[in-house]
Amino acid sequence: MSGTETKARMMQGTVVSNSMQSSIVVKIDRFVKHPKYKKFIRKSTKVMAHDAENACEVGDTVSIKECRPLSKNKTWTLVSIDAKAKL
Predict the structure, then answer these.
(1) Structural domains in the chain (count)
(2) The domain spanning residue 58 has which CATH number?
(3) How confident is the model at residue 3 (pLDDT cuts 50, 70, 90)?
(4) Oligomeric state and partners (predicted)?
(5) Which residue range forms the structural domain that includes residue 64?
């Protein structure tokens, strides 16, 4: 691995929107411990990801990885669909 290469971050989340062409919105949930009260809090982040084949449906669990900026808001790309949504 040369000096400029780094390992891309991988995340797992749920698709909340697929209405755009070749783009999806993925909601990533995580648990963080409150610094004062020590209670675990559920926090979520929504990111846009590139879905070249338009294969994802709302509710699918997907794996995404970080990539170069593809647009103003899109810096993630779809790696795989882990679980399809239950109809």
Answers:
(1) 1
(2) 2.40.50.140
(3) low
(4) Part of the 30S ribosomal subunit.
(5) 23-83
